[in-house]
Design goal:
Helix content: 25-40%
Shape: elongated
Low-confidence stretches: 87-92, 254-258, 382-390
Distance between the termini: 97 Å
Structural class: alpha+beta
Strand order of the largest sheet: 2-1-5-4-3
Number of strands: 27
Length: 678
């Protein structure tokens, strides 16, 4: 291999101690290979660059910029200059690079000298840097002048709407074809607030794309201010939520809501089921795709296969201690994919119990938060330079004294909960909580420790709406008062996550067709009913209910009518029992009703059961029309008692089933008690 005309020792003699950053590179195909760099340039690289190409060690967008200027210098045979930015020790630095083309020994070389230049933080530099932060994300970004002229947008926004950037620059933003009709006034209201210096996020805005379709986005409005506080421009950060809103609409318009929720969840989060030995027994495709492993490589493994080494050794032990106690665990976990990539997930793990009330599996739900983590790190690194961005974060910060009296709240409390700062300062934090959360908070306040803790609380807005938050709080010594301390809490809103968790619990314990509880619910709930009966010396009745003519109806009229017939039967049975009882669908046209808190005296107990069975028959005989046909369902019922016939759910169900069989052999639309078949 021919050595370059400039040796490394010659390069070091000339440039090693230079205060500028110097690179000597050789053209290699369509790329350029680093041959030598000086000492000053080393801090720009995470790995040693020599022997590697620009495309191998630089991000795609930055590599494209560098290669453009290198090739331009070679084509023109003239030096070229360009500017860029980098991080160094949490400082933002701006560089101007001069590129010299060199032609020697039938080869092409580049000598690059980068000088650090004054970073004056004017509007152009602020936007260019902010654009560099968000350039590689899935987010669209737009810059609007304070007189509402369209100035700039990133590639994602341009690609989304197929616009010609040059033709739109300088036009009124509100007159762009992307904003039409009823959406103009809404946009004008938001932009006016931003012109006045207000920071706000999670606004839903509408655009009209090139195919004349309406698309929805969540928008963050960040005013860019000069050093004297004047708003110079408005920076928009947009995330598309069109599909999510369409799914919400579909949920409202269809009777198959739960199936759609399942599909939406399956496409939005990573799901896995873990057995009592911590081994993965099932997972969804999204989980498989994110980890980089195959399904076969994951099944039978513990989540340790994804261990990143980021968390302390006792992290997993504490998590499993809580889960073994039957408590739901929530937190952020840093995982490592098969390819070695680190990624963050916001995780909720729910213990699931069997008929004996014992935990036999765990349901894990992961929300991928890697992009959010990366953005937050980028924003925090540039905090001193771009204070306006960090102030726009929607976290809630509150400082209290040891009795919970509020001493300071961040602006996000005022924006979200609609109280004025004066209405919050000096008040007890518990006065803004719901009754249940107030009890939780006061208990935590009594046991306040000096290390960081996490708590979920529901707060009420000034209008009475409830917003759920997850906060990390810590007690710190108050230097102003001896033996006193302050409580510092940083929270984030988790209202949507709470709704999703409730949906997950509902789906886990309810039947998709009838919306009634399912067998898993029966196995979970019955131990509680049984314990109450034992404690109060009361009786329980289990009614095994089976439809009389479901198969004939299903065969004659089809599955759609059959499904509607089962829903009708379930609804009429559920409407016939008392508030203390519950009905579950076992499968097909079979239902089980559990009648709780019955008298231990046979005569009194039988009277209540007979009354309920008569109500079931009466309500079923009212009938209903299904697709133009009138149906009057009938059912046969078998009954067994606790404690007379059995002391466990399994045996009670077996005995009730035997009584049901006897009832069907005698006459349909009747019932038998287990006493009758012994």
């Amino acid at each position: 291999m021919m050595q370059p005309f400039l040796s490394e020792s010659q390069f070091n003699i000339m440039f090693k101690n230079s205060k500028d950053m110097v690179f000597f590179m050789k053209k290699k195909g369509e790329d350029f290979e680093y041959l030598y760099i000086n000492t000053k340039a080393r801090h720009l690289f995470n790995i040693a660059p020599c022997g590697k190409t620009v495309s191998e060690i630089m991000s795609k967008n930055l590599a494209e910029t560098i290669l453009h200027y290198y090739n331009l210098a070679i084509e023109t045979k003239e030096q070229q200059n360009y500017q860029d930015y980098d991080y160094y020790k949490n400082e933002v630095r701006k560089h101007e690079t001069t590129v010299f083309p060199i032609f020697a020994n039938n080869e092409v070389f580049i000598l690059g000298i980068a000088k650090e230049i004054t970073f004056d933080r004017d509007l152009q530099d602020k936007y260019l840097f902010m654009r560099s932060i968000f350039f590689k994300t899935f987010l669209s970004t737009v810059l609007i002048s304070n007189d509402l002229k369209f100035l700039e947008a990133n590639e994602r926004f341009i690609d989304d709407f197929g616009i010609c950037l040059e033709s739109m620059q300088g036009q009124s933003f509100l007159s762009l074809p992307l904003i039409q009709g009823p959406y103009v006034s809404e946009w004008k209201s938001y932009l006016t607030d931003a012109q006045n210096g207000d920071n706000f996020t999670t606004k839903i805005v509408k655009f009209i794309d090139k195919e004349n379709k309406t698309r929805s986005f969540t928008a963050t409005f960040s005013p860019l201010a000069s050093t004297n506080g004047d708003v110079l421009a408005i920076f928009l950060i947009l995330q598309e939520v069109t599909d999510f809103i369409e799914q919400q609409k579909e949920l409202r318009e269809t009777s198959h809501g739960l199936a759609i929720i399942k599909n939406a969840i399956n496409n939005a989060v990573e799901l896995s089921i873990i057995d009592d030995d911590r081994k993965i027994i099932d997972l969804n495709d999204r989980f498989v795709a994110r980890t980089g492993y195959t399904r076969e490589e994951l099944i039978g493994q513990t989540h340790d296969i994804l261990d990143s080494g980021y968390h302390p050794p006792d992290f997993g032990e504490k998590m499993w201690e809580k889960l073994r106690r039957g408590e739901i665990w929530q937190g952020e976990i840093c995982n490592r994919s098969k390819q070695g990539e680190l990624y963050w997930v916001d995780t909720t793990i729910i213990p699931l119990t069997n008929a004996a009330g014992e935990i036999d599996s765990y349901f894990s739900v992961n929300y991928n938060t890697s992009e959010k983590k990366r953005l937050m790190i980028e924003l925090q690194n540039s905090e001193r330079t771009f204070r306006i961005i960090t102030e726009n974060m929607n976290d809630f910060i509150v400082i209290m004294d040891e009795n919970g009296m509020i001493q300071y709240v961040s602006p996000s409390y005022v924006r979200t909960f609609k109280y004025t700062e004066e209405e919050l300062i000096g008040k007890n934090y518990s006065s803004f909580l719901t009754e249940e959360s107030e009890t939780t908070w006061l208990s935590a306040l009594k046991n306040m420790e000096r290390h960081e803790m996490t708590i979920e609380l529901a707060l009420q807005t000034k209008k009475g709406d409830v917003i759920w938050t997850e906060g990390k709080y810590k007690a710190a010594k108050d230097d102003r008062i001896e033996h006193a301390y302050q409580i510092i809490m940083v929270s984030r809103e988790i209202t949507e996550r709470k709704k999703l968790e409730n949906s997950l619990r509902f789906m886990a314990y309810h039947d998709n067709l009838t919306q009634l509880p399912n067998r898993r619910y029966l196995e979970k709930e019955f131990p509680r009913v049984l314990n109450t009966a034992k404690k109060n010396n009361r009786s329980i009745a289990v009614l095994y209910i089976d439809g009389d003519n479901f198969k004939e109806i299903n065969d004659q009229y089809g599955h759609d009518v059959g499904d509607a017939f089962i829903k009708l039967t379930g609804e009429r049975i559920a409407s016939s029992i008392r508030e203390s009882d519950f009905v579950v669908r076992i499968g097909g046209d079979e239902f089980v009703a559990v009648l709780a808190n019955l008298s231990i005296i046979e005569k009194e107990r039988k009277k209540v059961i007979q009354d309920i069975i008569e109500r079931v028959k009466y309500n079923l005989q009212l009938g209903a029309d299904i697709q133009g046909y009138h149906f009057k369902p009938t059912v046969s019922i078998g009954v067994s008692y606790y404690p007379d016939h059995a002391a466990t759910l399994e045996t009670l169900l077996e005995n009730a089933d035997k009584a049901l069989y006897k009832a069907k052999t005698v006459e349909k639309n009747g019932f038998k008690i287990y006493d009758d078949v012994q």
